[in-house]
Design brief:
Chain A is of the alpha+beta class. Chain A has two domains: 2-156, Nucleoside Triphosphate Pyrophosphohydrolase; 158-229, Orthogonal Bundle (Arc Repressor Mutant, subunit A), CATH 1.10.10.10. Chain A has helices at residues 2-13, 67-79, 114-117, 141-158, 172-183, 189-197, 226-229, and strands spanning 17-29, 36-44, 54-55, 58-60, 85-92, 103-112, 126-130, 169-170, 202-208, 218-222. In chain A, the strands form two sheets. In chain A, strands 1, 2, 3, 4, 5, 6 and 7 form a seven-stranded mixed sheet that branches. In chain A, a hairpin with a 6-residue loop joins strand 1 and strand 2 (36-44). Chains A and B meet through helix 1, strand 5 and helix 4 of A and helix 1, strand 5 and helix 4 of B. Chains A, B: This is NUDIX hydrolase.
Chain lengths: 235, 235
């Protein structure tokens, strides 16, 4: 097959293409159980390869755009949202990620607050799916989401990243719901409350959550800096 | 200056070049104080831009080489060493990193054990320098090393990365010397020993360090997995 051989040989000479992709996590209520669960928006591919499969938002890096700006643009174009948390995740550069040309993808991840996530657009070619029910995505994007989830689960244990999912004030039960959604397991409410009250990152406000049937729970606020949430070199 | 304008305009059209660079940390004795300190190897640039300045080992990504393989090759070619710890650090992609063409550098970091570091080659164009006394490096490489140091200092606090600097057995004092070298400060020996004995990651052996003037200290070994040290998606 001389034609195929020529293509392979040509391909080996071309410099790798550089792309930016973004994993955008938000907590949204599960339609059945009602509890918050992790969701992310996907974009339907309208071209080959992997036409009609769903993929992470992204595209080639423009010559005049920084990596972070390209990721913020992915987020803006896909969801209409500004990022509250946007950080570089990892560069994926295996030789066989795309059947057409070698592509090195620098992947960012964004966490979106619930009031923002509620505003996010959904169209025929953009839809939000549960992080634990993605189906078969284009390229190696299932693996990228798995890695992002692994990093998120790790990071929630040793950092303040959970607060990037919450509004400016929140109840202790809402913090627990973030941990439960990220870790994918139920936590003991009393133990969790005790541990959380012992951390220096949050402080009680004088306000209470209104509208429940029970005694209104107290609202807390995050007192750390936004930079503390992130691990980027410019922070 | 029409020629200059043409160049700028041409430059804005070209796709960014993709390079791999590697920050290689090892502990070596300070020549004066004798205590272990952080060092890294640098390579003298023999071409413009930044000719004759020192730079991190690296170069353009070959079409047929994975990111990790390219970083391992940087390490091999610069020092003759195989990596015991090699992990992706960050992708640096600012618009003005190089005066010639836009370059996106995916940076890896390697940690090298002392017996390996003692074998490392040094030539006219490769030299090891103290991490806290680099001088002016080419491109944004000072900033990259600063970020690598920041990540190392963070990671030593919550992970087992310190053991990547040590041999298969070590004394508790040697672990403390790693922390002191990385954190750049002296630690209280008794407190440190107590905290270290409480971690599940190490266990005592039946062997003792020979050759000192004092009572020989006991040797310990790291019991965690190599994968635990690293944060890469393939681990």
């Amino acid at each position: 097959m001389p034609i195929y051989s020529a293509n392979v040989s040509e391909r080996a000479q071309q410099p790798p293409e550089l792309a930016i992709s973004t994993v955008i996590f938000a907590l949204r209520p599960d339609p059945e159980a009602g509890v918050p669960t992790l969701w992310l928006p996907l974009v339907r591919r309208t071209r080959q390869p992997f036409r009609d499969l769903w993929a992470l938002p992204g595209g080639p890096l423009s010559p005049d755009e920084s990596l972070q700006d390209a990721a913020a643009r992915n987020l803006q174009e896909t969801t209409g949202l500004q990022p509250s948390y946007l950080e570089q995740l990892y560069a994926f550069g295996g030789l066989d990620r795309s059947p057409v040309q070698r592509v090195v993808s620098i992947v960012y991840w964004a966490l979106v607050k619930p009031d923002e996530a509620a505003l996010a657009r959904e169209t025929e070619n953009v839809r939000w799916v549960r992080a634990d029910d993605l189906g078969q995505l284009a390229f190696d994007h299932n693996r990228i989401v798995e890695y992002a989830l692994w990093r998120l689960r790790n990071k929630v244990e040793y950092s303040s990243i959970a607060y990037a999912f919450l509004g400016s004030t929140f109840t202790l039960a809402q913090v627990r719901e973030v941990y439960e959604a990220v870790l994918g397991k139920q936590l003991d409410p009393a133990n969790f409350r005790r541990q959380l009250r012992a951390t220096p990152d949050i402080e009680p406000t004088d306000e209470y959550l209104q509208g429940g049937r029970h005694r209104p729970p107290r609202l807390y606020r995050y007192t750390g800096s936004a930079a503390q949430l992130s691990g980027s070199p410019s922070a």
